[in-house]
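A.,

Following up on our hallway conversation. Structure tokens first:
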């Protein structure tokens, strides 16, 4: 009898010879039929009963052991010996003390465990015949030392035709942040309501390779099985799938052991299109689809997508909006405090000292603090002659940074804010950001601001902020022009907390100038904000990222993926109604969800803010004035309003 060796044989040189008995999570017990050494030094094996080459990193060599004779006759499927711990009857794998233990694999959520659960889920949905399952090409790994972002998923292209859905994906990681011994990256096919329909692949790139490309294909029948559809007699299966799934997402998660046994630390893609890619439209998304999606509140802190012909707002204003640039909306969780110039100097000094004191960081609940980042910007605030926006603390701003490329025109609106009941200092504000064409006609900007159609979230946020303000209809605005100039220096730090939540803290010095009178005033502030939302598991026990019908067939308690706050309806519960498409924008009603203040990462934000304020100011922190809009404060100081 044989058992897996304690380590995989992916780096074996020379490779294991033909005929060697091995064990691999993809096929269990098998025999090597051939091998090939890739240019990067890793081995891929061709194994009996497996159509595709298998990475040597998941192939385990066996060695003979002599089991104790069983006391009772064993059934034919177990003639190799007794059942190993953690195995179901019928499995004849007998790991020794040094070999991979299935129970430990589950506890540690290892790649082998995830792949085994993926195969079990697929077997329950598609059966044992491999020809009935979706096809996935072996991952092709390479190295790109120029990639400096944290991580990213890119859908290179996809096809929806008579056969079904096929797509090609590239997953990029940062070589400086590769986990030990390697990254663990499950890639899933998800529905807009947050369900994981299928685990497409589980990637474990070699430590010196940070780019992985693969392709996958799903037939309409396979998608129908994943969705659990029972189509009416005579109805084409394609039509049934498109009614239930007009939109899908490809989502990659990077797992490590910082917050638990192989827990998610970062994600990219999905129907939310984090990093600008990941969504697949199986049919054109209509205005009616978007209108229907607005019946469900969206609690993600930020959402958006690059502007293309598929967006009605871009088709209507392509002479004003830069193509390919993201239009984003955000629920901004920020706390701003007005301080003196002396306080500003003291805060910067204390933050620099804190950076060099790991023990103090841990005492504050901070896992990692970034180095100091100093930014300078010029903000141009637009308004009408009566300064309607400044009077109502509404921001309509163009921001210029020193490293902007020629033609950059980032335009922002910040509208209404809400306070937590009983805690007026806790506020969340609705904002939108878009990139404009610099030489566009001013009349087109007014048209854009007055456009109240479904897809123009920017104009809707502005209108919601103005409310019933007299003379507040942009259709009647004759002269929307720069009315206030603010130059600012921001000394910024970032703090990483548990569950990958990142909080920004900045000490700002801002000078406002009235272009009419030439007068200037300066204010100093400390600003806290959520920079990166947390990734939280839905319960104490965390299952693998197998999806939808497969997870239900395995006896899971729910057929939805463990949600992060960004994907829930605010309380962590399932959506109140079915969501067929993921709208790429917020609507004013999203701001009125009281559950926003109960999100776990918002609680982390509050706790760190309060601890840091005490660290920086002591008990005097309670006496600091709460700020809001710098432009509004400066306009008051300049006697403009």
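Then the amino acids I'd put at each of the 641 positions:
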């Amino acid at each position: 009898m044989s058992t897996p060796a304690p380590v995989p044989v992916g780096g074996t040189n020379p490779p294991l010879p033909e005929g060697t008995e091995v064990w691999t999570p993809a096929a269990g017990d098998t025999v090597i039929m051939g091998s090939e050494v890739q240019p990067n030094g890793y081995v891929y094996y061709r194994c009996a009963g497996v159509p595709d080459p298998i990475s040597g990193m998941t192939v385990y060599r066996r060695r003979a052991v002599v089991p104790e004779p069983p006391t009772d006759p064993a059934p034919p499927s177990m003639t190799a010996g007794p059942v190993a711990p953690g195995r179901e009857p019928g499995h004849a794998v007998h790991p020794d003390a040094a070999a991979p233990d299935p129970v430990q694999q589950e506890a540690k959520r290892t790649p082998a465990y995830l792949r085994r659960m993926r195969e079990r889920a697929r077997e329950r949905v598609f059966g044992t015949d491999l020809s009935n399952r979706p096809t996935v090409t072996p991952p092709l790994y390479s190295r790109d030392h120029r990639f400096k972002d944290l991580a990213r998923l890119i859908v290179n292209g996809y096809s929806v035709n008579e056969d079904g859905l096929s797509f090609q994906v590239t997953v990029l990681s940062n070589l400086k942040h590769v986990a030990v011994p390697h990254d663990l990256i499950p890639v899933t096919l998800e529905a807009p309501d947050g369900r994981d329909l299928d685990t497409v692949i589980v990637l474990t790139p070699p430590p010196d390779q940070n780019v992985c490309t693969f392709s996958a294909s799903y037939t309409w029948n396979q998608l129908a099985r994943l969705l659990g559809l029972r189509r009416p007699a005579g109805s084409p299966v394609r039509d049934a799938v498109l009614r239930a799934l007009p939109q899908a997402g490809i989502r990659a998660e990077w797992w490590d052991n910082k917050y638990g046994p192989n827990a998610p630390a970062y994600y990219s893609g999905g129907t939310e299109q984090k990093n600008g890619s990941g969504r697949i439209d199986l049919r054109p998304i209509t205005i009616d689809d978007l209108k229907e999606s607005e019946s469900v509140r969206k609690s993600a802190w930020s959402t958006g997508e690059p502007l293309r012909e598929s967006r009605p707002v871009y088709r209507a204003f392509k002479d004003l909006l830069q193509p390919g640039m993201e239009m984003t909306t955000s629920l901004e969780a920020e706390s701003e405090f007005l301080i003196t110039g002396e306080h500003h100097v003291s805060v910067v000094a204390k933050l620099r000292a804190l950076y060099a004191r790991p023990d103090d960081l841990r005492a504050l609940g901070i896992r990692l603090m970034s180095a100091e980042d100093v930014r300078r910007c010029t903000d141009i605030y637009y308004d009408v002659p009566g300064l309607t926006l400044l009077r109502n603390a509404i921001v309509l701003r163009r921001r210029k940074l020193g490293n902007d490329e020629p033609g950059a025109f980032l335009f922002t609106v910040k509208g209404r804010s809400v306070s937590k009941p009983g805690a007026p200092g806790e506020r969340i504000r609705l904002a939108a950001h878009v990139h404009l064409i610099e030489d566009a006609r001013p009349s087109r900007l007014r048209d854009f601001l007055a456009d109240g159609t479904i897809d123009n979230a920017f104009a809707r946020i502005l209108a919601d902020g103005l409310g019933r303000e007299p003379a507040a209809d942009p259709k009647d605005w004759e002269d929307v022009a720069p009315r206030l100039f603010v130059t600012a220096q921001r000394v910024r730090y970032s703090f990483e907390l548990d569950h990958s939540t990142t909080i920004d803290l900045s000490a700002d010095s801002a000078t406002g100038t009235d272009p009419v009178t030439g007068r200037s005033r300066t204010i100093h502030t400390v600003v806290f904000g959520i920079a990166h939302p947390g990734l939280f598991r839905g319960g104490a026990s965390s299952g693998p990222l197998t999806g939808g019908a497969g997870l239900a067939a395995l006896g899971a308690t729910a057929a939805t993926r463990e949600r992060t706050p960004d994907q829930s309806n605010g309380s962590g519960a399932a959506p109140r109604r079915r969501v067929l498409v993921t709208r790429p924008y917020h609507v004013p009603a999203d701001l009125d969800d009281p559950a926003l203040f109960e999100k776990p990462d918002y609680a982390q934000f509050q706790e760190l803010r309060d601890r840091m304020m005490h660290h920086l100011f002591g008990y005097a922190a309670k006496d600091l004035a709460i700020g809001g809009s710098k432009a509004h404060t400066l306009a008051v100081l300049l006697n403009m309003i």
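Residues 1-7, 63-99, 538-576 have pLDDT under 50 and may be disordered. Curious whether your intuition agrees with the design.

B.
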